[in-house]
Amino acid sequence: MSTITIIRLPLGPFRVNTYLVICRSTGQAAIIDPAGEPQTIIDALDRAAATPCLILNTHGHPDHVLANAALRAALAVPVWMHAEDSGFFADSPDIGDLEARTGLTVDTVADRLFADDERLQLGAATIRVLHTPGHTPGSCCFLVSGHLFTGDTLFVGDAGRTDLKGGSLDRLIRSIETRLMNLADDTRIWPGHDYGDRPGSTMGRERKENPYITDFILDS
Fold it and tell me: CA-to-CA distance for 11 and 192, rounded, in angstroms?
């Protein structure tokens, strides 16, 4: 039986997948990529009787950090991000538009910084940070109890774009090859956007069907 409960909330103007990861034995919760609608997130936590302890960003793009500031203030919970992305997108041209559309203040700077292979405790569960640069310099995936939260590094049948500030296709392919390809086939994939034929996948399915793996890695 899984040690965690996962709640997926597609939120914000770009329908980013915000995830609530809740330790079943303690009720402690991590909020991954709060993408807007902070009250929706708070209401979901309340319905699950969960206590938020961590706000984790897979990367620093404004659409993935949109509700950071509001939730930090409302819940008194620290925001975590990789050092290479914290503040890196503070001058993003998207910020003004997002703030005008949502009424939220976009804060791209984290309270605390995690590093590659760092372990964060969530009740009885452990969240392992995998630094997977390519979509952005500080992009990370989070592995917890056989579930991998991939942000914009890996989608269902696709991968994150690399033509924006700090992006690199070579680094993205290398990250997938060296950090994700060694994971078990039954590892559940929870991406940052629902761009595929289903909201989630497995590492085994992506190995067989994702062209970023079949074409760039397995056929190279």
Answer: 11
Residues 30 and 6 sit within 8 Å (Cβ to Cβ): no
d(CA 61, CA 182): 27
How far, in Å, CA of 208 to CA of 191, rounded? 17
- Beta-strand relationship, 112-114 and 119-122: unpaired
Going by C-beta distance under 8 Å and a sequence separation of 6 or more, which residues neighbour residue 69?
104, 105, 106, 107
Per-residue pLDDT tens digits for 137-170: 999 999 999 999 999 999 999 999 999 999 999 9
pLDDT in tens, 84-129: 999 999 999 999 999 999 999 999 999 999 999 999 999 999 999 9
- Residue 188 and residue 201: Cα distance in Å, rounded? 6
Chain-centre distance of CA 94, in angstroms?
Answer: 19
Confidence of residue 2 (pLDDT cuts 50, 70, 90): confident
The model scores a pTM over 0.85: yes
Distance CA 192, CA 135 (A): 12
> How many Å separate Cα 34 from the centre of its chain?
9
- 203, 183 Cβ separation under 8 angstroms: yes
Residue type, 90: A
